[in-house]
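help with this:

***
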Amino acid sequence: MNSFLDWFMATIGQHISPELSVFLVSMLPLIEERGGLILARLLNIPMAEGIALCVCGNILPIPFILLLIKKFIHWLADHRFARLASWLLDKAEKNKPKIEKYGFFGLTLFVGIPLPGTGAWTGSLVAAVFDMDLKKASVSILIGVFLAAVIMTIISYGLIGSIL
């Protein structure tokens, strides 16, 4: 993740504000607010502002994923991107048991525990592909995003902050 953040700041980040950089990084799949909060700390953005930017950036794609990802996957399959469509469906299928076992709280923890391959994007993908109730899934994902923000704030502003 650090090499991506270094690349981002050396290219795109040179042309936009630090705040917009943090917001955009938090929107990206796989990086999400985990990377956004680390970047916010490295850019010396105050903690409250960094949290707000990262949570907003991480939340913004969720409704689009929940509502449109199945149509997007079908479009990919119909337009010579069947391998990518298959990869997305396999990713959802692989994570389904983790979420299904505990339902609402399973999805919340899946999104909230900042591990590789988890987060709002993957949680939204799983919820949409397996037709989970949109309201419950949305609330669960939002709680997970806030949980991840707490954990990553402790890590990025606490542990990394003490090292810097």
Observations:
- Residues 62-151 form one domain.
